[in-house]
Design goal:
Layout lengths: L3 E5 L10 H9 L3 E3 L6 H7 L5 E2 L1 H6 L3 H16 L4 E5 L8 H13 L3 E4 L4 H9 L7 E5 L13 E5 L8
Helix pairs in contact: 4-5
């Protein structure tokens, strides 16, 4: 059984990719991307890093949860063939459901998962908005915000607002 290494690609600019992430991607025999719809992909291609993506799952799934569960299952199946790298936008531990589903499934199946963190979009937001999260900040998922209490006395960042309907 192979090991799965999950790599954070950062928020999109090449300079935000960590050295550890780059070295992991360059040494990998097999790389899987959650999506090709990320600014880092062109740089990966330019550096000769080949990959497969799971973009087709988005067209086949009815919900994101279903898509992410299928990705986790596919990665576990691929791990039977040997080590692999799974690369996701940002930081795997920040707003990345597929990562947490993969961790749970891999644990159930006895597969080792190693994580190479990346810079998330939040660090960019803190800097650009002049927000110190230590002084109070809420980060909420726009897809699960209904019925959740917001503290309007603190800063609020709402994620997953990707179209007019969600907004």
């Amino acid at each position: 059984m192979g090991k799965i290494t999950v790599v954070g690609l950062g928020p999109g600019w090449w300079g935000h990719l960590t050295l550890e992430a780059l070295e992991t991607l360059e040494k990998a025999q097999r790389v899987f991307l959650r999506t090709e719809k990320h600014p880092m992909v062109e740089e990966l291609k330019a550096r000769g890093i080949s990959y497969s993506s799971f973009d087709r799952f988005y067209d086949e799934g009815d919900t994101f949860e279903e898509v992410y569960a299928r990705i986790a299952e596919a990665l576990v199946q691929e791990a039977k063939k040997g080590d692999l790298v799974y690369a996701v936008p940002g930081n795997p531990a920040v707003a990345e459901t597929s990562y947490y589903l993969l961790l749970d499934l891999a644990k159930q199946r006895g597969i080792e998962v190693r994580t190479v963190p990346g810079m998330s979009f939040l660090e960019i937001a803190y800097q650009r908005l002049g927000i110190d999260p230590v002084k109070g900040l809420q980060v909420m998922d726009g897809l699960g915000i209904k019925g959740r209490k917001m503290d309007t006395g603190k800063g609020i960042i709402i994620t997953q607002v990707y179209d007019q309907l969600v907004a």
